[in-house]
Amino acid sequence: MQENNETILSINERIVQFVDYLKLNRYKFSKITGISESVLLNIYKGKNKPNIKLLEKVLNIYPALNSNWLLTGNGNMLSKVSIDEIPPLTKQDSSECKGCIDKERIIAALEKANNGLQEALNAYKLNCKDDSKQTG
User: Fold this and answer.
1) CATH label of the domain that carries residue 97
2) Is this model's pTM higher than 0.85 or not?
3) Distance (Å, rounded) from C-alpha 60 to C-alpha 38?
4) What pLDDT digit, counting tens, does each position of 77-97 carry?
5) What is the domain count for the chain?
């Protein structure tokens, strides 16, 4: 995960950096997100800033992408999953031990992290599959 502490990149540069991080080209990113390739080209060239609909699409498709980083440049590119981010379970059963509830919260946090990693892996596999079609 990359962090931008020295120089805050523009939102356009952060989108380019994220696409590069996924090891996708504009065409593949366009197909995955449903964002037109010409819109992405204008973002790459710095001609246009992304609109809210584009940002929503990207954040909905890539929930592991840190929205704070995307919008402001602060923090890490990818969200860190913390046990504190997972709300306590709402089980009212007083017979449930605290250790069991903590384990459930940890499992929920790990499932959230796993989903983000699975999404990145799927994008990588798609990229590899498309590359093999072009060379084969």
Assistant:
1) 1.10.260
2) no
3) 21
4) 988 765 555 555 454 444 556
5) 1
